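Researcher: I'm preparing a figure for a lab meeting and need a structural model of a single chain. I don't have an experimental structure, so a prediction will have to do for now. The sequence is pasted below. Please return the structure as tokens so I can convert it later.
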Amino acid sequence: MYAFQIFEVVYSDDKFIDTENVLWLLPVCMVVIPFVYFIRLKLFDKYVHGIDLEAMDAELQYYKNKEREQLNKIGIRVAETPIPDAETDLSNETPKRTLNEIFQNLQHAMKSILSF
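Model: Understood. Here is the structure written out token by token.
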């Protein structure tokens, strides 16, 4: 933003700074600020707090396997449930399914309109 203000001071003929031209920065800031904050959050969690999500997942999988082995030793069979990936996560599937239904309904409506 400061670079834009300096550019405006040097190359603009306006007597006033930060009038309507700052509105050009709003779309750029709406993209850049969340992206930078996400990177900051990941780095801060990993290097300051010591939170490593991959290590946590590996540790959870280790304890799950260990518990399953102990249950198998005493004769209790546990069905192995697969851990959902990002591709099979319901949060990803639901919007796709909803969009698919919307497009199918739109296609059906267009066919019924054009069939008259």
